[in-house]
Sequence to fold (689 residues):
Amino acid sequence: MISLPPRSQWLGWLLMTTVLVVYFWAAQRGWNNEITDAHSTRQAQTAITAELIYENGLDPLTPFNGLGPPWNVPMEFPFYQILTASLAHLTGGDIVAAGRLAGILGTLVLIPALWIVLGFVGLDFTGRSFSVALLLTSPLWMLFSRSVLIESWAAAMAMWWLAAFLKTMVADELEVRWLAVALSIGVLAAVTKATSFAVLLPVGATVTVWLWRHRGRSIPVRAAIATLPGVVAAFAWTHYADAAKAAHPYAEFLTSTNLQSWNWGTWEQRFDPMWWQQTWSHFQQVMPFWWFGLVIAGWGFGNACQRLALALGTVAVATGPLAFANLYYVHNYYFMAVVPAAVAVVGISLGVIWQKFGTNPGRRVAVVLVALGIGATQWDAYRDGLGRGQVRDRPLPALGLLLNEITQPEDHVVIFGSEWSPLLTWAIDRPVTFVRETYETDEDAWKASRQGLAPHDYTVLVAMESVAGDMEFVRHRCAELGLVETATASTPQADIYLRPQAVESTKSFISEARTAGRILSARPNRMGPGESRVEFIKADWQPIDYATQGALFDVCQPLPDALFTQFPPARLPAFDQSILHIHPPGGLRFGALSRDRTIHFSYGLRPEIWQNQHETDGVRFRLFGRGADGKQRELWGDLVQPLQNPMHRQLLQVEVDLPAHTELELWIDAGPDHNLGYDWSAIGELRIE
Fold:
């Protein structure tokens, strides 16, 4: 016989039942839409990996489409993607629907962990239900917990680690079961999303120190066993992922070293008022700022344990954006990691006030009315804000859908002239390689990528943006791949090149698409660049004759071994000194040195450009290293555009690390339009120490 809950719990059950209905109603809105709502790029990236696991299993563990072979570029450990693929098998194969369902399950898994944590501050059933209600009606949580994102599961696993950690730490006798849960969940949470796990680490550290002072030496040992394996696993996973990315022809830009500023942000960013304004704006999608007035009341009414919980919850909320400044600035969904802590802080305050009023019905009614008012505010914020975007069914990129229709599943598509776009990759639904701008002239990476496809090769070439106008480069690549050197189809964004047999087989479709306006009637007259990328691919490096040219290169120490240029270099006056001018395309090559060094480089454009307002799209300076493995790696790069950026109207300075036994190349290239006009480069110094 089913027993009813005690009367003291009825309000809590009613509150949670109501918000669950609201949450599920919000979650199903736009359920059948494409993943083109908020942060579609990240959703598409997650969906791609989940779909590859669904189709091909776990070999490799972290399948990746968008940068070509090898099709393995580890990001986070794919726990959520594996779950999504498993749900797709159970529900009929719709990855998007399975991903949304997985996100909702993450919410349901988080609630018991949050409930356990709230129990440590002495709240009764109804008192704890306030935090659950706030979680399920948070506008940010309502949207992103049903998106194809790992966020709800990352937060759930971090909260389960904290729940098990607290169970382990407060027990008089060692709870081996809870210690095992904390250890295992901690490892999984850390490798799935270290930035979410890190939010709660200060809470664990503070609890450890506090209990250590009161309970003795066993406390740090328990804490270390429960926490350190996760921290070590996060570092080990990062090392593994970095090694795989570094070995990939086109993925080295995704290593943790190259993304350090992107992930962590800069100190200057943290002191920028714009950062605080944007971060505050994101946080108000979690809850209105006036909620924190309740925290003051909770602090006043609460006991020592409850005050500590309020302080630790506030620390957790602040840890995310302060530690990962740029991620939280750019992506509002990163605040999913701090939503449980934020709602716990406010929910604890409501629960403390609720219990303080005891059996006084009038005052308790007032608390309920406050809770209902908060819920109404949450609902309005969701309906008028994030909820609107959730139900707007935007189409997938037209170029991607077109490429899907004119290609076959066995085709391999290479795209030049665009950064990797997960959403475009998702729409194409073919093996795709985006060759980023920094790799367009990297022949080593190009050869390695093609070898990775063997015995197959690229069968479709897409030229976008400035590459579409570089016909010499496009024809060069088409000739290598055996593609027709005339575009089969053109859109405003791109030209598409196919193999001869594919051109014949798609004639009917191309004609219909052209009639329907999906394809341009003819290739547009895309202005060609003054400099072609082929010039760097076929660069003729010549040894320098120091008997006749030695004085030209005195700004370099040591002196370069070889020179590539189409125009004679010159020493010219600029910035009150004598600079070396090498007109793009050009470069210098330096031999490898026996130990680690530092490159001191000063560079820029000659002042006559902005003094006389000469039109130029700028000059790109890049430093490349070639190590013992023979692989070319970009060490540093900068696009100097003094007309657009007044800060570039000087000799710029940079220091770059140069590993031992690494050849160095300085490339001086035209700007994004490859227009050679007024590309008057200036090298003030290139010193290797």
